[in-house]
Amino acid sequence: AQMAGGTDGNIITYDTSGNPAVVATGSDGQILTSAGADAVPAFEDAAGGNSPYMTIRKTYSNRQTITDYAYSKITFSDAKIESQADLWDGTNYRFVVPSGEAGKYFATLSLRVDNASTNLINTFVMIYFNGSDTNSLNYNVGPEDADASATISNIAGSVSHIYDLSVGDYLEGWTAANTTGNDSDVTGTFTVFKIG
Questions:
Q1: Can the peptide bond before residue 98 be classed as cis, meaning omega within 30 degrees of 0?
Q2: Taking residues 55-59, what's their average pLDDT?
Q3: Which of 3, 11, 114, 177 has the fewest CB atoms within 10 Å, counting from its CB?
Q4: Residue 164 has pLDDT above 90, yes or no
Q5: 187 near 60, Cβ under 8 Å?
């Protein structure tokens, strides 16, 4: 038998009776999804897609000064690099899970701490969960035998974690720098996206 003409983008399949059928062309970006046995497949929006997502940064021109060995929340206030929705609370400097988007999220915080006096001993990079450091990850970087003779001018570190978040839960970036007595400057990025 000869196949008849059709519409560009349509896909030929078989219906539940075994007769030829057509799956209509989907929209740009949609994927072909099986509907299971005894059902014709269809073009649908892809599930997941790491959405919602957000990356925000603190650049050197807008660096934050932190007091020696005092835990400080990073006041990310530069323009968001990427954001699928309005997920950043710029008043409280935190990522907040929006309505209808509970699930598993991947978060990563990358910071660089600079000290003009070249006396950094170590730095802590932390993600706080709902305002508490009991659920944070601490990453202590610096020389193993650090002491007052340290001559390090900058330390970069990052921490990542997967969180099971409910609507309204929030994540914040925190840091602390241990020096021989001077304040330090911090810059960095904070990225959060849904994975399931």
A1: no
A2: 91
A3: 3
A4: yes
A5: yes
User: Smallest Cα–Cα separation from 173: which of 62, 89, 104?
Assistant: 89
Backbone angles phi, psi at 166, to 5 degrees: -100, 165
167-176 residue pLDDT tens: 999 999 999 8
For tokens 């990427």, name the residue.
82
| H or E, element range at 178 | strand 170-179
- Give 67's contacts (C-beta < 8 A, 6+ positions apart): 183
Q: What residues form DSSP beta bridges with 69? A: none
pLDDT in tens, 104-138: 999 999 999 888 776 777 888 899 999 987 555 55
| Per-residue confidence (pLDDT) for residue 163, from 0 to 100 | 95
**Residue, of 190 and 82, whose pLDDT is higher:** 190
User: What span, in angstroms and rounded, lies between the C-alpha atoms of 69 and 129?
Assistant: 21
Q: Work out the angle at residue 116's Cα, subtended by the Cα atoms of residues 111 and 118, and round it to the nearest 5 degrees.
A: 90
Eight-class DSSP state of 132:
B
Q: Where are the alpha helices (DSSP H) in 33-143?
A: none
Residue 64: beta bridge partners?
186
Do 60 and 189 touch, CB atoms closer than 8 A? no
